[in-house]
Amino acid sequence: MNNNKTFMLNSPLGSIFPGNQEEGLKEISKNDKNLVAVSGKIKKPGIVTLTSNTTLRDIIELSGGMLNDKPLKAAQLGLPFGGFYTKKDIDRQITPDSFEEGISHSIIILSEEDCIIQYAKFYIDFLLGKINGGYIDHYIPALPEILQMVKVLNRISKGRSNMRDIFLLRELSQTVKEKVHQKYNLIEEVIIYFYDEIKDHVEDNRCYTLQCNNLTKLTIMDNCIGCDKCTKVCPVDCIVGDFKEQHYIDYTRCTHCGACLSTCPVNAITSGNNSILFLRDLATPNKIVITQMAPSVRVAIGEAFGFETGANVEKKIAAGLRKLGVDYVFDTTWAADLTIMEEANELAERVKRYLEGDKEVKLPILTSCCPAWVKFIEQNYGDMLDVPSTSKSPMQMFAAVAKDLWGKEKGLSREQITSVAIMPCIAKKYEASRPEFSRGLNYDVDYVITTTELIDIFKKSNIDLSQLEDEEIDQVMGEYTGAGIIFGRTGGVIEAATRTAVELITGQRVDNIEFTSLRGFDGFRSCELTVGDLTLRIGVTYGLKEARKMLDKIRSGEEFYHAIEIMACTGGCIGGGGQPRAKKREETIKSRMEGLNEIDRSLPLRRSNDNPAVLAIYEKFLDYPLSNKAQELLHTRYFVKRKK
């Protein structure tokens, strides 16, 4: 765990002074009342000197102007809170007297890119961190109301509120103001100045800034040039619009695969960006931020820092994340091994029943790690929902174990842990927001950061992975096998599953576990895997158009498979919509694929059932694969989603 959050956190979306620098911010103005620290949506955050006629406009200009040249939304004076200036106050003078006694001489600039609900949540979390740290004891009498504000804002940000929540927020803010003897209350002013934006969240489930995870979908912005490239690559024909006019997405058909985003030449398509949320959480006092990284991230992110394509830079990523201030750096690959323990046992159980003549058993079994195809099968093949494995994806297994088991051992509640997933995939943002992966309004994965978003965060934070010393990933939920690592490529999930499943079916140890018959780069592959007397027929495909062909053949009885793997993206997760773009796309994807294969070959443990950290979880908490406890924590169900 690393608490050295000592420098200004910066990203393409803004800058933040970490919570432990508040005393430092006060020191800035202790000897010179004219010094003010400026952060937020400005190009050059830092210290500004006030003169006798300095206005808010001047401060913004001295700070390099607004980030991305977006309009000013508001300026918060001081910490904890000294009032809002809004765009109507742009020419208002700011002097040392503008700051109340006892608050820091700091200004946080918000632009129209900032969601006011997310900012209010950050402010309240920050306030709670300072209260819990014993820094602002005079807020303790209002603690019940502040905690209630957290719940209300959480409901609003997740689309689970109504207009009475705004009424309640107003009442709570007035009570806090009275109890703490505040001149200004942030929540009260948010309601006064930004009522319509709050109302949009509540009544329309709409966040126009795309910063509220649960209200955000893939969106085509108004800078769309109507080139039709997205229309041509969309595998489910959900994009509509005339040539050279703005296009739109039919969300009842969209699977969030991100193919459109990857091909757009003008960056007019977005899935929302959680970078600023990540930085705010890192800056919040007493908040425990943990990350997990998917297998394919480590062989792609290095391309942006001068490493060869396919190079494994997981230890550089760990060092970079700790430099940002992440408390625990874990690995999704560990959970991939856990997923295989469940999926392989499901596969072995179904195949055994089939070989024994059970005509009721459902085959093939479908690996269930790609959220885009999960939504695709829910929308298009509702009659086949008994085919997929019920095992959660590694991302969701990791997060459930982290919040419900690891956190409990550490004495942490779910609310104290911010669980961040670093993923190659746009659809993972959608998966993280599915209500079945939550306990009430506390989601197992709080939000997803894509590979490209993390690259931006590192670069704008002046973190160059090539210049960092290697650091190990935190263990317990970090140790992985070769089977877990190949999850990131096409054919890898089913190969990992069969490495364990064939031994469960035959009862014999298999020496040669490189099942090359399952490998390849064709979008649709029918493979036969023979081990001793056992022959399994397995289908592997990537791309949802190819997936449709395979599922149609299975549905009609034209093809039979014991198991199939479907991935939405080219080459699997290594070609995900959140990965860095490549000019030589196929060549790059193949290099990333070989990078994963090389890690697999180099590891002493290559079967998921040999992972001691995974076996320890069963021994300590879950008993055995497919136990009642495992079913409750590690499995899910699917739902028919009718499309228009």
TrEMBL record:
Alphabetical list of SMART domains matching this protein: Fe_hyd_SSU (SM00902)
Protein name: Hydrogenase, Fe-only
Entries under Gene3D superfamilies matching the protein: 3.10.20.600, 3.30.70.20, 3.40.50.1780, Fe-only Hydrogenase (Larger Subunit), Chain L, domain 3, Iron hydrogenase, small subunit
Residues of the 4Fe-4S ferredoxin-type domain: 216-244, 245-274
Organism field: Lachnoclostridium phytofermentans (strain ATCC 700394 / DSM 18823 / ISDg) (Clostridium phytofermentans)
Pfam families associated with the record: Fe_hyd_lg_C, Fe_hyd_SSU, Fer4_21, SLBB
Key words of the record: Iron, Iron-sulfur, Metal-binding, Oxidoreductase
GO molecular function, one term: iron ion binding
EC number of this enzyme: 1.12.7.2
Lineage start: Bacteria, Bacillati, Bacillota, Clostridia, Lachnospirales
InterPro entries given in the database record: 4Fe4S_Fe-S-bd (IPR017896), 4Fe4S_Fe_S_CS (IPR017900), Cytosolic_Fe-S_CAF (IPR050340), Fe_hydrogenase (IPR009016), Fe_hydrogenase_lsu_C (IPR004108), Fe_hydrogenase_ssu (IPR003149), Fe_hydrogenase_ssu_sf (IPR036991), Fe_hydrogenase_subset (IPR013352)
